[in-house]
Amino acid sequence: MTERKGLNQYYPAEFDRKKISRLLKPKNHQKKIRFMLPVPARCRKCGNYMSEGTKFNSRVEQVTEETYLGIEIYRFYFKCTNCSAELTIKTDPTNCGYLLFA
């Protein structure tokens, strides 16, 4: 029963790993993450107030055209809990904080 899973796999002699295509992701690929709001935010469309610590499913991407002393800057996209308008938060390493965009 110990060999039931088969630890070794058979590769035929004509098998070439270089012929297998790899999935290449773009440089600024957006990833889906679970995000907790670091600062209180207010939606500019409906006026809904979202307090600090509210959890969201959000998308994150690295801002490719901006850096600060070699520190990477990230942009987070999330939706308002009331009207589903998209809000954006960008990290601000110059002031050790965040910038909120509507």
Automatic annotation (TrEMBL):
<dbReference type="Pfam" id="PF04502">
    <property type="entry name" value="Saf4_Yju2"/>
</dbReference>
<dbReference type="GO" id="GO:0000398">
    <property type="term" value="P:mRNA splicing, via spliceosome"/>
</dbReference>
<protein>
    <recommendedName>
        <fullName>Splicing factor YJU2</fullName>
    </recommendedName>
</protein>
<dbReference type="GO" id="GO:0071006">
    <property type="term" value="C:U2-type catalytic step 1 spliceosome"/>
</dbReference>
<dbReference type="InterPro" id="IPR007590">
    <property type="entry name" value="Saf4/Yju2"/>
</dbReference>
